Amino acid sequence: MTNRSLGVRRAALLASSVALLGLLAGCGDGDDTASAPPSESGTAAPATTATTATPSDPGPGSGVPTDAASASRTPSAPPSPAGGTRCHTSELSASVGRNNPGAGQENFPVVLTNRSSRTCTLHGYPGTAFVDASGRQLGPDPQRSATEPETVKLAPGQSAWAGLSFANPEVSGAGTATPAALLVTPPDEEDPLKVPWKSGEVPVSGNESSVRLIPFSPGTGA
């Protein structure tokens, strides 16, 4: 065989091999992983949370809470027993009774009186906050005693009282301020009642600056 014939044969074999490889490359066995489709630009919208509107409050507080009215609110109380429904702020009046000091403590009854024409109930603690003339809270949030609350039924004109106490600042050395008013919020209500404060300085900073509360009992605490 001549060199020319051999070269022609090799060229033909090379062309056949290239064609065969191209044919194999174009055929799949169906087991390969498909390419993911191109991703779209943008992000998912964030989940939304429903909000509940609240009544207007006094200005921001100088203590830990942002405003005195929210600080004076109380967590939901247990449902009232059969035969009565809870007293609403609009049905009550508030007052602060006479100080009954003792053992370095100042002790005041916070009194709520039913001024409606129906019988209603109170269960738990009042929300309280000392405020200045502009409505800003003075001092930290009150602390609650471990006393088990009772449900107090108030017929029209009847009252219940909760104890409010704090260490005498002259004894404890706490920083003081003179409030313009005490905000009092009935249990499970949001709207406070404002009572003028006429009993002088209260502790607002430093050691022994916390106000303490005991839950409602029948009567005026006098």
UniProtKB/TrEMBL annotation:
Domain of life according to the entry: Bacteria
Leader sequence segment: 1-21
Residue ranges, annotated region (Disordered): 26-108, 184-222
Keywords: Signal
Sequence ranges assigned to domain DUF4232 in this UniProt record: 87-207
Compositionally biased intervals (Low complexity): 33-56
Record's protein name: DUF4232 domain-containing protein
Annotated source species: Streptomyces pseudovenezuelae
